[in-house]
């Protein structure tokens, strides 16, 4: 079993940046993929972006270069930042990892973009 714990959600003003962190219970290098999904109100969960085991990034085209995902190896955390946020970025964000052909999810963390 792999536990994924998200942190950093909350309220963000339009035009600002949101930052989230995911702390897996195992080394990130054990995952063939670790990344983020999000579920906006009344919408299906969608892929945001992540990092494959060899370090290659995979971002959703819809993020339009606003997305930064980085691994902090020393802290064993996966960090996400979205710049120039708008109301459409309001969602529950889920950390995701695929380890040995099994999918694992964090509990999700709410991010609300509002003035």
Q: Give the helix tally.
A: 0
* Helicity level: under 10%
Derived structural class:
mainly beta
Number of strands: 11
Which overall shape is indicated by the principal axes computed on the Cα atoms? globular
Task: List the defining traits of the structure above.
115 residues; 7-stranded mixed beta sheet
Fold and architecture overview:
The chain contains no helices and eleven strands. Helix content is 0%, strand content 53%. The strands form two sheets. Strands 2, 4, 5, 6, 9, 10 and 11 form a seven-stranded mixed β-sheet that branches. Strands 1-3-8-7 form a four-stranded antiparallel β-sheet, with no helix packed on it. A hairpin with a 6-residue loop joins strand 4 (33-39) and strand 5. By secondary structure, it is mainly beta. The model has no long low-confidence stretch (mean pLDDT 94).
Give a short synopsis of this structure.
This protein is mostly beta strands and 115 residues long. The protein has strands spanning 4-7, 10-12, 18-24, 33-39, 46-52, 57-59, 67-72, 77-82, 91-99, 102-105, 109-113.
SSE map:
Elements: E1 4-7, E2 10-12, E3 18-24, E4 33-39, E5 46-52, E6 57-59, E7 67-72, E8 77-82, E9 91-99, E10 102-105, E11 109-113
Parallel strand pairs: 2-11
Antiparallel strand pairs: 1-3, 3-8, 4-5, 4-9, 5-6, 7-8, 9-10, 9-11
């Amino acid at each position: 079993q792999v536990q994924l714990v998200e942190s950093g959600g909350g309220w963000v003003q339009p035009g600002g940046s949101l930052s989230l962190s995911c702390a897996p219970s195992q080394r990130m290098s054990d995952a063939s993929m670790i990344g983020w999904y999000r579920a906006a109100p009344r919408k299906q969960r969608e892929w945001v972006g992540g990092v494959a085991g060899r370090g290659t990034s995979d971002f959703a085209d819809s993020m339009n270069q606003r997305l930064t995902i980085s691994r902090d190896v020393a802290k064993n955390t996966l960090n996400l930042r979205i710049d120039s946020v708008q109301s459409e970025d309001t969602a529950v964000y889920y950390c995701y990892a695929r380890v040995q052909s099994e999918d694992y999810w964090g509990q999700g963390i709410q991010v609300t973009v509002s003035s």
